[in-house]
Amino acid sequence: MKAKEKMDHVLRVMGEMFPDAHCELNHRNPFELTIAVLLSAQCTDETVNKVTKDLFEKYKTPADYLAVPLEELQHDIRRIGLFRNKALFIQKLCQILIDEHGGEVPEKHEQLTKLPGVGRKTANVVVSNAFGVPAIAVDTHVERVSKRLGFAKADDSVLEVEKKLMRLVPRELWTETHHRLIFFGRYHCKAQNPQCEVCPVVEFCKEGKVRMKPASNRKAK
């Protein structure tokens, strides 16, 4: 089976498994999404949503984040990993939004990546979910699943994984593909204890095939 045919098949299966795959970070506008994705680095979406429930009621605009001391913002997001650095990034980001973008989150990818704390993955999430621009954001789940299923090599960088996925998937399906891969990795093909025994695409997964072999056979090799 050719790579594109395999990708089409895998995405159909994932679509059947997770028909409602979507961005799980709670937000009401592009600004809140940007803050939420920034906070989500090395942190679960579940934890971020717990923090932003109160955070987004207290801070509604970039100016709100700049109206308090850095220490207060750090305290408000203290449950988030790397909260000190992230609080600093948020205030710097908000200052740039006010100074250069009229207080609004820019829609262009290259402008987003110039904001403090906003890397390529964050920018991809924002443009695709907030502005409807097709993009594939490669997080840990997307990277893991792509490599396990052979769509990327084990030593590929995150950018290389993204480029390979973009070549295999039609542009109009990039965002949908991103969500399906995340859900598949988050709830099925987990980093620890993946559900190989009931996986409908284990035939494409070298790691899964090894896991499925009897322990005696694995030791013999």
TrEMBL record:
Residues 39-187 form the HhH-GPD domain. Binds 1 [4Fe-4S] cluster. PROSITE patterns: ENDONUCLEASE_III_2 (PS01155). The keyword Cytoplasm does not apply. Its cofactor is [4Fe-4S] cluster. GO terms for biological process: base-excision repair, AP site formation. [4Fe-4S] cluster binds at residues 189, 196, 199, 205. Its EC number is 4.2.99.18. It holds the Pfam family HhH-GPD. One of its GO terms (molecular function) is DNA binding. HAMAP family: Nth (MF_00942). Belongs to the Nth/MutY family. DNA repair enzyme that has both DNA N-glycosylase activity and AP-lyase activity. The DNA N-glycosylase activity releases various damaged pyrimidines from DNA by cleaving the N-glycosidic bond, leaving an AP (apurinic/apyrimidinic) site. The AP-lyase activity cleaves the phosphodiester bond 3' to the AP site by a beta-elimination, leaving a 3'-terminal unsaturated sugar and a product with a terminal 5'-phosphate. This is Endonuclease III. The lineage of its organism: Bacteria, Bacillati, Bacillota, Bacilli, Bacillales.
